[in-house]
Amino acid sequence: MTTTESTDVTAAQGIGTSPVRPDGTMKVRGEFAYSSDLWHEDMLWGATLRSPHPYAHITGIDISAALALPGVYAVLTHTDVPGVNRYGLEHPDQPVLAEDVVRYQGEPVAIVAADHPETARRAVAKIDVGYEVLEPVTDSEAAVAGEGPELHPGGNVVRHVPIRFGEQDVTADVVVTGRYEVGMQDQAFLGPESGLAVPAEDGGVDLFVATQWLHVDQQQIVAALGLPKDKVRLTLGGVGGAFGGREDLSIQVHACLLALHTGKPVKMVYNREESFYGHVHRHPATLYYEHGADRDGRLVYVRARMYLDGGAYASTTGAVSGNAATLGVGPYSVPNVTIDCWGTYSNNPPCGAMRGFGAVQAAFAYESQMDRLARACGLDPVEVRLRNAMSEGTRLPTGQVVDSAAPVDELLTRLRAMPLPADRSGEPDLRHLPGGVSNTTHGEGVVRGVGYAVGIKNICFSEGFDDYSTARVRLEALGGEPAATVQTAACEVGQGLVTILQQIIRTELGVEQVTTLPMDTSIGSAGSSSASRQSYMTGGAVRAAALEVRAALVEHAARILGHDRGDLSVGGGKVVSRTDGVLADLVDVLGDAAFDRTVEWRHRPTESLDPETGQGNAHVQYGFAAHRAVVDVDTELGLLKVVALDCVQDVGKALNPQAVLGQIQGGSAQGLGLAVMEEIQTEGGVIRNPSFTDYLIPTVLDMPPMRIEVLELADPHAPYGLRGVGEPPTISSTPAIVAAIRAATGLALDRVPVRPEHLTGT
Amino acid sequence: MRTFSYVRAPDVETALRTIATEPNAKFLGGGTNLVDLMRENIERPDVVVDISRLPLTGIDELPGGGVRIGALVRNSSLAAHPLVRTRYPVVSQAVLGGASAQLRNMATVGGNLLQRTRCLYFYDEASACNKREPGSGCSALGGFTRNHGVLGVSDHCIAAHPSDLCVALAALDAEVEVESTRGTRRIPLTEFHHLPGSTPHVETALAPDELVTSVELPAPVTTRSRYRKVRDRASYAFALVSVAAALEVRDDTVTAARLALGGVAPKPWRATEAERVLLGAPATEESFRSAAEAELASATSQDGNDFKIELARRTIVATLRDLLTDRSAA
Amino acid sequence: MRLNVTVNGERRQADDVWEGESLLYVLRERLGLPGSKNACEQGECGSCTVYLDDVPACSCLVAAGQAEGREVRTVEGLAEGEALDPVQQSFVDAGAVQCGFCTPGLVVAAHDLLDRVPDPSDEEIREALAGNLCRCTGYEKILDAVRTAAGAR
């Protein structure tokens, strides 16, 4: 499927344009219903009792005092879970409610429904749980070495991914090694975990929830409730951001249990502190790398050991480990690779999906190494990357050949060509200097550094996963105009998928009026809003359904107008003949007819990785982005300011150019956060900063202006040639910023986030 | 949050009478600290006395050049007031660097004085905390101490005071006026907050039945004053280390110096040792460094906050240097 | 307790308000105005920003009783019927809305800024909005929106 076939790129508000998002007006008016805004007559409020201990046996649970509180309608524990008390995205290893052991601080032990949220909170406080506290397991490397108690049957290694590519024992003239650490980042989406479960007359339940994948939620709820699928119906509530943090269950089963038990609707909303306990975080990582190259800086080998701490439950640790390993050398051509990546269990907070999904951790390590290599060879950081850059036809360490554009060199050369911000000279506006609001230095002792980084991300799901999306498109005349309706279960989490789906319909059917139906489980799965996959997969499904509708419409028009089918096309609300021009208005041709097609759409298949060698055509597509950061550092006090963060990214085809920029800017901000301020601090498995007071995310004052260039080098295997956009900018931004700080200060800085005390050496 | 009753005081007299007669009552000003602490169940008053509408909102010039600031003056008004900006720029800077516009619009001067520590163990009811429960211990010791104090701490408490404004006020010899049914008294700001010693739960000199009604600043020794803060991002965050300083220099000699530190102690830390070294010394980087070393000589640290000692010295030197070269005094 | 408060120009009353409820809770759960958001309820994110007697405040930290007799203006009160306020329109047009959870608070904060400083510099915009967190946009398009709105007013 190439980009030129069957695409009318001049369709008004079609692909390639930037129409405003259809929910934008409601959002600015405060009228858009997020899952935390839902309300139902007679509803109760749910609350969760969570373990204060990272690792403990439960010796008893006494709910009597909680039940006795006026206004309390239910207090439930694991004995009230009618189906299977286990769920999980890869392994069903996580209890809906804890039984005899808790494995992380914050693990749910009991749930309450009451008539006021404060009553529910007080009831939770009255539940008496006996704990026998155990020493928590917190060391990933020790787990791999087989040390420490087993947290799950089978030991504490969730997955080991070995990669053996080329020769394993080669030597090289220039060798650089490093040990790197990436702290635990949090998605910190603003909309709290929330939803509303409404018990139904048929004995089932209707759940309105903010999530990333309705059908996988449904599967897990069905198993826990012991109900058939048609009795558990999910509808997407408005989502206040996700970034991977809503892939795992939060309130879903709990709210349904309480609703079914009480016979009343139950709403659950986490506060911010609970949110930090209530979702998975980014895997913290320790990475040991060795790069060997010739004296010209050309890579001979890369060897790496990667330890990803997955915390108490598996979540998506397996897939994260697979990504980190397969993308572990970065967007470079390396003839000999030895990688071992371990994802482990511990009693640290559970980790799973966060934008970048393993590629972030690897990129910090391999890009730091490339700069080390540059220094060792006397090359500049861009030059060493250009000499090793991947391109179309390069083989990844998995043996898979990159079979579409991989413009690594072009990203870097374009970045390098961008003008640098002006030197600070004369009397600068002090607000541009490190220190921030009302606090800036006067400029002495401030040094500036420039850093580059380039990253690679796999787009869509990998390793043989049978991923697909389902879309339904309907075309008919409504109110005297041709009108299209699109229905998918694809979760709009803020990225702007709803806009793009409408644009695709406009392009393919030439129809302006497009309505999007609510996302729910009445239609088949659209897969996850993650892995930067939705434009590709649900866009692909919508396109495919629209094309089927169009084909049926053209056939119908051919019959009505007495024209040859092959001669006809639709566009701009008209039916057009190649030979005779405009034949009729589409609405007249439609009459009372409706064309309604549902398509289940797949990408080309991928392969699993060989368990010994990591070889296999595991990925569907790659996304590439590069950043250049300019950072001013006040070395005396350790204050810094990112002065510029420029980016070049290849998106294949920008379906909505404005939204593409929004993704690049947003992703880069999250990368900046990881570089200089964001970390979940744990102490013996306990989270010490579960608040926005102490878990700092970038504000408007922390973000610099960004120069962005978007390349559109079509992937011939993808709908419209597009490449997933959301994750690549989160991957190269962090190492570029740290590289700039290193350039300014000469410090090694092997760990992110970088803190003031790392810069002052105090 | 516990159940409590809410009353609004129509005048100062009624407020004082209420606080004197109710055994467990607290005043509510802007609410930016108290409401949060009540939600965390750290503060548990039975009665909340809303004083936010009392007529304590003036900023008045005093004969002699000082200024009297009503306890209910909002942070935003304080920072913006021309008298404050011109005579005590360190105060404006401290407030503007402290919190967002929204919070500055709500927070009061009196509330700022009485705000409590942000120590994460103080906030975590699963941790031992001698402030929350006298005698229960201090989980911060040996814990995650990056945000804790290095001066004036004890074996019972190493928390840091979170205020920016109080650091500026401490440097400038502010006095706090408090009232009760028993009368009025004045407490120097430097004596208003207590060090923890063996009683960390006793945080201020305020009796339970007293209301802060105003803060007075004497005429400024110099209008060359500045606030610097080291924090983890360009925008609002609590200080790792902060410095409020005023410096007067004549003929290259320091003729007056006022210095206080934030983020490093359980109370706003008036740097008397540093001031002693500075007075009469040549106005050079070397003197600034000596002064800083003298002040931090008694510092003690945990593993997690050892960096604060040198950082505090450097921030003192940097702030004094800024004042010396002073391209932006206001 | 009973609470009397003027919201978006209208006199409103809420009964059986528990003293510990915040103004944010009252607006969202009792007065049918869920536009102001509850991202942190600790005054750290600005998503609950409303006008309280003409100045932006974090409604999550306002105890319900403190709002008695006062004037509140929320995001729902900025538009004139169908017509969006220029700040709202600019946010939509500039692509400054992604998930939109931060949007109500930002719109109120930006609206206040432009009332006070009709032609703000970039630095002034950044300082004024520094109390509003956004996780999706990276703030660039929010700045674009405020600049455009300044021009449009």
Automatic annotation (TrEMBL), chain A:
Pfam families: Ald_Xan_dh_C (PF01315), MoCoBD_1 (PF02738), MoCoBD_2 (PF20256). It comes from the Bacteria. Residues 1-10 have a biased composition (Polar residues). Keywords: Oxidoreductase. Residues 29-135 form the Aldehyde oxidase/xanthine dehydrogenase a/b hammerhead domain. One of its GO terms (molecular function) is xanthine dehydrogenase activity. InterPro entries: Ald_Oxase/Xan_DH_a/b, Ald_Oxase/Xan_DH_a/b_sf, Ald_Oxase/xanthine_DH-like, AldOxase/xan_DH_MoCoBD1, AldOxase/xan_DH_MoCoBD2, AldOxase/xan_DH_Mopterin-bd_sf, Xanthine_dehydrogenase_dsu. Residues 1-22 are annotated as: Disordered. Its EC number is 1.17.1.4. NCBIfam families: pucD. This is Xanthine dehydrogenase subunit D.
UniProtKB/TrEMBL annotation, chain B:
Keywords: Oxidoreductase. It comes from Prauserella cavernicola. InterPro entries: CO_DH_flav_C, CO_DH_flav_C_dom_sf, Diverse_Substr_Oxidored, FAD-bd_PCMH, FAD-bd_PCMH-like_sf, FAD-bd_PCMH_sub1, FAD-bd_PCMH_sub2, Mopterin_DH_FAD-bd. One of its GO terms (molecular function) is FAD binding. SUPFAM superfamilies: CO dehydrogenase flavoprotein C-terminal domain-like, FAD-binding/transporter-associated domain-like. Residues 1-222 form the FAD-binding PCMH-type domain. Pfam families: CO_deh_flav_C, FAD_binding_5. SMART domains: CO_deh_flav_C. It comes from the Bacteria. This is Xanthine dehydrogenase family protein subunit M.
Automatic annotation (TrEMBL), chain C:
Signal peptide: none annotated. It comes from the Bacteria. Keywords: 2Fe-2S, Iron, Iron-sulfur, Metal-binding, Oxidoreductase. Residues 1-78 form the 2Fe-2S ferredoxin-type domain. InterPro entries: 2Fe-2S-bd, 2Fe-2S-bd_dom_sf, 2Fe-2S_ferredoxin-like_sf, 2Fe-2S_ferredoxin-type, 2Fe2S_fd_BS, Beta-grasp_dom_sf, Diverse_Oxidoreductases. GO terms for molecular function: 2 iron, 2 sulfur cluster binding; metal ion binding; oxidoreductase activity. CDD domains: fer2. Gene3D superfamilies: 3.10.20.30, [2Fe-2S]-binding domain. It holds the Pfam family Fer2_2. PANTHER family: OXIDOREDUCTASE WITH IRON-SULFUR SUBUNIT, XANTHINE DEHYDROGENASE IRON-SULFUR-BINDING SUBUNIT XDHC-RELATED. This is (2Fe-2S)-binding protein.
